[in-house]
Amino acid sequence: MRCKITNEKINPFMSFGRMPIANGFINEKNFKKEFFFNLEVGFSKKISLFQLNNHPKPKQMFNQNYPFFSGSSKGMIKHFKNFSKWIKKKYGKNLKNLIDIGSNDGTFLNNFKNNKINVIGFEPSKNVAQVSKKRGIKTINKFFNYQNVKKFKSLKKKIDIISAANAICHIPNLKSLIKGLDYLLKDDGLFIFEEPYLGSMYEKTSYDQIYDEHIFMFSVSSIKKIFNLFGFELINAIPQKTHGGSMRYVVSRINKRKINQNVKKIIRFEKKKNVDNFEGCIKFKKNCEKSKEKLLMKIKKLKNKNKKIVGYAATSKSTTILNYCNIGKDSIDYICDTTKEKIGKYSPGKHIPIKSMNHFYNNPPDVAFLFAWNHKKEIFKKEKKFSQKGDWIAHVKL
Ligand code: DWN
Ligand code: SAH
């Protein structure tokens, strides 16, 4: 395997086994044609970058049937409102043009509607892009990369801020991404983006963050090193609670802005916790193996007591848990979810039926496996009735 940025040779240090497309919720007639790949991870020592080895082609994952909608969680709608407020407060003075990468259904950009700011979303998945367009948000149904960006000549060096959330780790060709940023951003323009944080994944052993779409798991150390290679620098890093622990990064061209003390502080923390080096990977691998064993024991005990277990929320992350731990229909009766595009289909790889929330209320289990553990506050609040009788489990601490 080779590092996707430096091209150095690296050895994959762990495999999660044969994996389907994480968001590939499937109809019964297509079971036999299902696509699988070997989900392996490696680490570039030069730029401290945690990354997948093989992965499906972007178009296999992001197309006209992408079943994840940013607006599916109230907590994220609120977070994006706050994120937009933060941008306006800190950088709003001269903000005229903003582009969001991976704008999905427009949940984030919707917050800029009544301001005199021109916003454009880049969103390759047609169905979610259409939702965004219907909301009146200018949305370009294309992958953000240099090839596509350079066609928009009128936008060259005109953009004040390029934003992204949970999208940059989905883009295998980061060089092309950065060339695109360079083409669009004004001289003092900013790239502000949030991504799941490697340090949080290590701390919680939340290995379910690793799946086909998440090509990279970033840290402050890796982002600093990557952007330095291309004439940019990291000027701020701010931890976020979203998606089980994320990091907001602010990047500018070199020597354009003051660097916030946070950057140094977090890099020191990452050294201490081995987030910036290979030792962290080895410990993580051992923790994943222990976590798998513990989870399988827990499920075995429940099944021995004849407990009915169902999954709560058919997340992308659940695909890794179920396939890595080999948990199927014999343990989990169904997975309930709020997304109509998933209901009636089956979970990728393990083919557990996806059911509506009504089905969950009418056929409650003894135990609910919380796959959307990152939204636990929101979910526990609305599922108080179930919690009175039933139990919650997860592969991470709840
Ligand atoms: O990075 C990504 C993040 C932002 O979103 C993408 N690659 C894909 C997706 O990951 P995920 O599927 O793990 O996201 P969530 O937000 O943890 O889970 C969303 C799923 O959970 C949806 O299918 C809706 C469902 N859900 C539910 O059924 N009831 C969610 C909530 C909050 C609920 O109350
Ligand atoms: N930003 C949203 C969506 C995250 S899901 C949120 O945080 O909720 C990841 C999104 O990135 C998907 O909608 C996917 O279609 C999009 N995406 C994947 N590759 C992309 C690329 N090269 N350019 C722009 N968007 C991309």
Description:
The chain is an alpha/beta fold. It has a domain at 306-393: NAD(P)-binding Rossmann-like Domain (Rossmann fold, 3-Layer(aba) Sandwich). Helices cover 32% and strands 22% of the residues. The protein has 13 helices and 16 strands. The chain has helices spanning 58-61, 74-91, 126-134, 146-149, 174-184, 198-204, 220-228, 261-272, 278-304, 316-324, 357-362, 376-382, 384-389; strands at residues 14-20, 36-44, 49-52, 97-101, 118-122, 139-140, 159-165, 185-196, 216-217, 232-240, 246-253, 309-312, 332-336, 354-355, 367-370, 391-393. The chain has a 7-stranded mixed β-sheet with strand order 6-5-4-7-8-11-10. A hairpin with a 5-residue loop joins β10 (232-240) and β11. The model has no long low-confidence stretch (mean pLDDT 98). The protein binds ligand DWN and S-adenosyl-L-homocysteine. S-adenosyl-L-homocysteine is lined by residues 58, 62, 66, 68, 70, 101-102, 104, 122-125, 128, 143-145, 165-167, 170-171.
